UniProtKB/TrEMBL annotation:
PANTHER family: CYTOCHROME B561 (PTHR30529), CYTOCHROME B561 BACTERIAL_NI-HYDROGENASE DOMAIN-CONTAINING PROTEIN (PTHR30529:SF7). The gene is yceJ. This is Lipid/polyisoprenoid-binding YceI-like domain-containing protein. Residues 245-396 form the Lipid/polyisoprenoid-binding YceI-like domain. Belongs to the cytochrome b561 family. It comes from Nereida ignava. It comes from the Bacteria. One of its GO terms (cellular component) is plasma membrane.
Amino acid sequence: MLSNTASHYGTITKLFHWTIAFGIFLVIPLGIYGNNLAHAIEANGADAQTVARAAFVFSLHKTIGLTILFTALARIAWAISQPKPEALNGDKKAEHWLASMIHWLLYGSLVLVPVTGWIHHSATSGFAPIWWPFGQDLPFVPKSDSTAHLFEGLHVVFERVLVASLVLHIAGALKHHVIDKDATLRRMWFGTTAVGPRPQQHSAKTAILGALAVWVIALGIGQSLGLYRSDTGQTTAALESVASDWTVQSGQIGIAVTQFGSQTNGSFSDWTSAITFDETAKTGSVTTTINIASLSIGSVTSQALGAEYFDAATHPTAIYEGQISHIEADQYASTGTLTLKGQSIPVEFTFDLTIVDGLAKMSGTTRLDRTDFGIGAADEGTLGFGVDVSLNLTAAR
Ligand code: HEM
Ligand code: HEM
């Protein structure tokens, strides 16, 4: 009774079939609902409540999705070890072939859909963690925008193939039950079912080729719709270069925040620094201007730039003006004021500086409280108050 026979599905096959069906009927609406929330956030800006709800919905979606994946892998292993009950309409060549092709599509989807979702998730940082304990990241997946967009597109394409297959699959099951009045649906349900005589079976071996063709066509449609491309984002006017005793050759301004308990890193790609520094007196000054819209932070860049957070539209730049003083050896401090989102707050940071052959290398960090600048909600539920800012640069005289 646990195993399949030539005429019946065993209990284990049935349990697998209906638990996964149940999971699929949960995970699809969650994905669609979460996606709608995400679009609403992009269109109307992020209020903390909607962001928290979207994150909850996506975490649930991803966690159930991965549960389905691992259950499906066990199910596939089980199905391979089992005889397949003969089709009750095995004599109707086209119908039997179509039903088999859809079974291939369903089995394949149970792997392709969650795996592409998981890769998409691993390629981005921040937002809606998976609640399973086995970590957020897949070892072979780089954190990259293009990988994220590619797999986001693939997830949607494979998910659409799954939905279409499922509609046909359910329609087929109902046709057997209502029109053909045979035992196809009843024998997939629990308990013993009399199936009656089984007809001569046509082979449906080529049905797997049909399934492959469906995926190839769907991937082609996804390509023609541009679903795998990363959008280049808003382009903003770059900052004009500034006159400085020291010219910055390379460097990075990074920020690290804690979102839903895990660290998310971002950086500004466009900023300028005007630096004076007297090597004998070991004093100087620095004015750094940051183009806020050049921020990139995982999958939440557009939310971060919205009105509730950085509000890049109203406050396009942040400016730090500081005086440099020597502490000891290679250690220096800069004491000054950071003006960000219309608020000016005293900010001090310590940094290491070495100058060799007219080339200065500095690196420093400081910790800010985002609420000092009116950034984000005044609770730490989704986003921690502390923001670690790091600055590394190489400058030549
Ligand atoms: C209301 C929902 C569903 C109904 C009524 C339904 C019904 C059935 C029935 C009657 C069969 C037996 C077909 C036969 O005897 O040839 C079957 C098999 C199958 N179903 Fe479903 N199903 C549902 C949902 C799903 C879902 C969500 C999936 C997976 C995504 C799925 C995947 C499969 C697969 C792969 C088989 C072939 C099993 C095998 O031959 O080992 N089904 N389903
Ligand atoms: C069987 C498992 C899964 C199914 C059936 C499924 C299905 C869906 C559906 C229907 C959507 C909405 C797409 C839209 O409205 O255009 C969606 C979106 C999404 N899913 Fe899944 N999913 C599954 C597993 C996963 C897993 C395991 C992850 C990540 C670990 C994941 C991550 C996502 C993400 C991030 C989105 C939003 C995509 C976007 O921004 O366009 N999914 N999924």
